[in-house]
């Protein structure tokens, strides 16, 4: 990645020695300022180190743009892609840097820059110390770019408008994206996704139970006990420190009745059923937090948050948990249905760490993972609460029907991002969201700390979801 990767215990006050020496040698005044909210993104320069078989290249562009790799390839006549995160981290560590400064002289590689970054009179770049920026006037920055090559390969974010609040348009927008961006055969696969590959008999039974309001503990116990892999998982979950069950759990029925409860077991099992039949991912963005680990963390935190909501306005705990477990399901669908385009999305996520994934997906596909994930949930006839949780999870101001489910996902995801769990930018949590849920920021922090204390157990639970579909019993 090309973000700051080392977070100091306290805010640095000076730039790293290497940067001070470099600016002194280039006769550029050293002016620093702390990174803070409200800085115009057009003034912030994003630096990314890319490479191909010819070597590396430093690319600079303003943060109010998306770096389009196809345009960059046409401009540079090179197929540049992200440098592996571990390689970049080693390079930065050797020079005592925590993040990559937008200074061409920092590397011997050629530099390419989007010429529109020089439209600003003052530019702000990473200093090499996280949380501290360098302020450089346009004239001095032009001097630094003397040997760099200008071009236009960014897409202004003002031209990219993801559909955040019109779910009624999702179906037509998905169809349009398929017709204009992909081969027509993809549309057929989209409609067949829930049968390809077919769900196991166990999965089908669980889905029927989830839709049956008269289903009992005996019903779900019977399903779990006839599937050894699922039974083992339920026993592990019941023994997890997260649930702090007194005494040893000796049977599946005891695990369900005494510890986990009907809703939690059936929702965990359903999440497993819907996820396991999709292709396994090979995404470089998962190196920090694998997909299912993030899903389990989010669901567990939502469960804790839900229990803090006053009883009179508390959403159904099981559905809230399932919304957290499936919140990023559209990501799996993109990987499964559009594999070539998914790889391109992953590359753009790596090279645009300052952007919300919706801008990238909208630009490349014309739809977002939230649209396709919620569309699929509706086609699978899942509850409206689940559809809402997935569709509006990125809108902290959503106050429409079933808003608690979407608000809980937004809250949980951003609390976890603050702990470097998951991917994407941590977004601010408005006080109005806490008020709609009927909880305080302090209560939310308490729920977060409980989840963090159970981190090892949650990782073990997540590992069960990541096992290959081949591990499931043949039926």
How would you describe the overall organization of this protein?
With 475 residues, the chain is an alpha+beta fold. It has two domains: 17-34 and 42-152, YbaK protein, CATH 3.90.960; 167-198 and 277-471, Hypothetical protein af1432 (Orthogonal Bundle), CATH 1.10.3210. The chain has 22 helices and ten strands. The strands form three sheets. A five-stranded mixed β-sheet has the order 5-2-3-6-9, with helices on one face. It is elongated, with a radius of gyration of 24 Å. Residues 1-9, 192-198, 279-288 and 468-475 have low confidence and may be disordered. This is HD-like signal output (HDOD) domain, no enzymatic activity.
Salient structural properties:
disordered C terminus, 2 domains, YbaK protein, five-stranded mixed β-sheet, Hypothetical protein af1432, 475 residues, three-stranded antiparallel β-sheet, alpha+beta
């Amino acid at each position: 990645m090309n973000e700051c990767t080392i977070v100091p215990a306290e805010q640095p006050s000076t730039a790293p020695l290497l940067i001070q020496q470099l600016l002194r040698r280039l006769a550029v005044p050293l002016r620093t300022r702390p990174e803070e909210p409200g800085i115009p993104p057009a003034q912030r320069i994003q630096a990314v180190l890319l490479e191909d078989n010819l070597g590396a290249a430093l690319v600079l562009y303003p943060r109010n743009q998306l770096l389009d790799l196809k345009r960059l390839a046409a401009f540079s006549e090179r197929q540049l892609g992200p440098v592996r995160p571990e390689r970049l981290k080693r390079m930065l560590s050797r020079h005592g840097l925590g993040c990559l400064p937008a200074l061409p002289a920092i590397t011997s590689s050629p530099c390419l820059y989007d010429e529109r970054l020089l439209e600003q009179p003052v530019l702000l770049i990473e200093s090499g110390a996280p949380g501290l920026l360098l302020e450089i006037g346009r004239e001095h920055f032009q001097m630094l770019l003397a040997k760099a090559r200008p071009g236009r390969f960014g897409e202004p974010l003002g031209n990219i408008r993801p559909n955040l609040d019109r779910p009624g348009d999702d179906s037509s927008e998905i169809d349009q994206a398929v017709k204009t961006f992909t081969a027509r055969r993809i549309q057929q696969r989209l409609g067949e996704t829930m049968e390809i590959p077919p769900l196991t008999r166990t999965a089908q039974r669980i889905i029927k139970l989830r839709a049956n309001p008269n289903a009992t503990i005996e019903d779900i116990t019977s399903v779990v006990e006839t599937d050894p892999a699922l039974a083992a998982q339920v026993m592990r979950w019941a023994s997890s420190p997260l649930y702090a069950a007194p005494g040893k759990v000796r049977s599946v029925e005891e695990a369900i009745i005494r510890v986990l409860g009907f809703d939690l077991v059936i929702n965990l099992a359903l999440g497993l059923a819907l996820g396991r039949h999709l292709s396994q991912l090979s995404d470089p963005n998962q190196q920090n937090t694998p997909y299912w680990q993030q899903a389990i963390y989010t669901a567990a935190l939502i469960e804790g948050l839900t229990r803090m909501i006053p009883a009179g306005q508390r959403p159904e705990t099981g559905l809230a948990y399932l919304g957290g477990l499936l919140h990023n399901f559209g990501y799996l669908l993109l990987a499964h249905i559009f594999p070539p385009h998914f790889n391109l999305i992953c590359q753009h996520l790596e090279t645009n760490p300052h952007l919300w994934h919706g801008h990238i997906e909208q630009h490349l596909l014309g739809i977002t993972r939230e649209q396709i994930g919620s569309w699929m949930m509706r086609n699978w006839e899942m509850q409206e609460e689940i559809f809402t949780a997935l569709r509006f999870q990125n809108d902290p101001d959503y106050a429409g029907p079933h808003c608690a489910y979407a608000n809980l996902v937004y809250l949980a995801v951003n609390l976890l991002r603050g702990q470097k769990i998951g991917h994407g930018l941590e977004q601010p949590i408005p006080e109005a969201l806490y008020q709609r849920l009927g909880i305080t920021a302090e209560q939310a922090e308490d729920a977060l700390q409980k989840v963090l204390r159970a981190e090892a157990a949650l990782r073990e639970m997540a590992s069960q979801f990541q096992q290959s579909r081949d591990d499931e019993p043949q039926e």
